[in-house]
Structures are given as C-alpha cells and as structure tokens.
C-alpha cells in the first residue's frame, strides 16, 4: 500500500542536502565549541557560520541569534525569560487563545508566579483583531506574544501591524514563526518584533535544534544554569551537527522558498478541488487569502476525528487533528474552540492537512480521492 504524508505542519522530511551536511560533522568535527584548541575551534567555526546564516535569513545581526533545542525551548526562553527579567516594569502579559502549547503552557506557568495574562479571542477565521490588542494593552504590560502562522489552521496573524501598535509601548513583542519561517520572507527591521522562535524540523532540517532571535537591547533572563554558551542566554554545549544541519536547511529554504510557496498552494487547491469533484460534504476552516500556502483545516460534516484519522491511516494517509503535540488526545482542538465556541461540531470533526517536500500533485489528488471514498463509506 502506498503511503502519502500530509502532515508537514507536524514535522517535515529531512532534505538530502541537510543529511549530507551533517554526516561529516559527526565523523570529523567532534570538538567542544567552547574549547580553545584546534578541535574546539573547528566546531566553533561551524557554529559561527550557521549563526551568520540564520541571522542573514532574518536581516538580523549574528549576535541576536541564540541556538536552542527547538521551537518549544525558544518560545519558553522568550516568554518566561522576558517576563521574569522585566517584572519590575509590570506583570501583565497578552497572548492569544490559539497559541501553540509551547507558549500557552509557558504563560500558564507564569500565572502561578503572579503574572496576569490576557488571552485574546479570534474571529471565525482564526484571526486576532488589532482593536482587541489595543484594548488589552495596559501601562504594566511587559510582553505580547502572538504567533505568525497558526499550526492548526494556517491563519496568518497581523504581526507587522501589531508591532506598529506596540512601537511606543514598553512591552516586548514575541512571535512564534515556526510555521511561517519556511515559506515567508522575514525582515526583522521591517517586522519590528523583539523575539522570534524558529524550529529546524519544520523547514526540512533535523529535530532537536532551533533558534531564538533576540533583538539587541531586549532584556531576558536565561532559563538554564551552567556554562556561558550563547552569550550566557542558553547554557549547555551546542549541538554542532544539528546546527550545521539547520544551516543547510536554511540555505535550501532561501533558495527554494518562492517555488515551495507556489507549489504547496497549488497542492492545497488541487486537494480541495478534488474533494469538491467527489461531492464530499466539507467546509474549509478559514479563508485561503488569510492562511498559509501549506496548511488547510477541513471540517467533515457528521464525522468524528478519531474515526477519520484511523481510517485515513489504514489507507496509507497521514494527517492530523491539530497540533502534533496533542496527538492521541481526544480533547477538542483549543484553536477551533476559540474560533467556533465550546461544543461546536467543527471542534471534533476537523482534520489538518499540510503539504510539503514529501508530496507531488498525483499523491495529493490520490489522497483526496481516497479520503472521499472513506467519507462516503462512513456517512
């Protein structure tokens, strides 16, 4: 049976160029990058080059890049580190009800330390409203955290507009750009954001590596205690082979970004059109013009998430009911609940399909046809 992978928002296949770049590091460059001898210097050189590549991809300075173990650690360092370091200025944090759990659980933890958190609502398309942000701002607000692209629906949030709103406010602005980084061009000077979290395995790089962009002058405290790596912001010996793989993934991403964006949008449209041609009862959650090219979230009328995913898997199709970090959970999606309300059928009958390197148009159409057959059989 042929397997078709439609879950790139959960993780992506590692690009062959990335594997090729990492293997020699494992074989030849085993030195600790903090060591001053030649073995350490060789490892440090790899880190330096990767840091410059990551910074260049955002039009940032290399001193503003902190390597982490992935997006979750980057989000935690940004949210918890910034809040704790700036508590003397206030204790109010603004985020949204649809954030990735790396951010949501971080701010929930901060509530136990006495911070006051405002969770902004979203409309039925999963979009945060600028007026709501404006109304939520207080004099003691020290941090605003809004993801750029939602991992469940692909909804693209007004990040640059929010940054403009915060321009004259003391609050730092953090954005999780894990789902956006691979497809959208980023310029931190134009965006006006203070902190950006990135994950390697969402851009065809290795798992276990990512980085946090920290704008020069941003005050945050380290969340790990140990050595003085990463300019004292993130203790621990850096994962040199993974960082080299991340660099290679960024190089491929920058060379192919526009092609990928066009290709994945075409896949999404072909997928939806095939479902329409098969006369399946469904609704797309969100609008194409306000969602990322690679993600579509679809509600199948009268269906059940667990039943659908089980039948899809038995037919060789990999998809998701939402965040991969809650896979196996029978809880309704917190994102769709925020969009449609508690108990709405869409919170338990919607599937996320996400397109990427593992796909071609024939596979996408074949998957949509198989899915249509399953829906008709279960109806």
UniProtKB/TrEMBL annotation:
Positions of the Aminotransferase class V domain: 4-364
Alphabetical list of Gene3D superfamilies matching this protein: 1.10.260.50, Aspartate Aminotransferase, domain 1 (3.90.1150.10), Type I PLP-dependent aspartate aminotransferase-like (Major domain) (3.40.640.10)
UniProt cross-references to InterPro entries, sorted A to Z: Aminotrans_V_dom, Aminotrans_V_PyrdxlP_BS, Cysteine_dSase, PyrdxlP-dep_Trfase, PyrdxlP-dep_Trfase_major, PyrdxlP-dep_Trfase_small
Cofactor(s), by name: pyridoxal 5'-phosphate
UniProt similarity note: Belongs to the class-V pyridoxal-phosphate-dependent aminotransferase family. NifS/IscS subfamily.
UniProt key word Ribonucleoprotein: no
Enzyme Commission number: 2.8.1.7
Name of this chain's protein: cysteine desulfurase
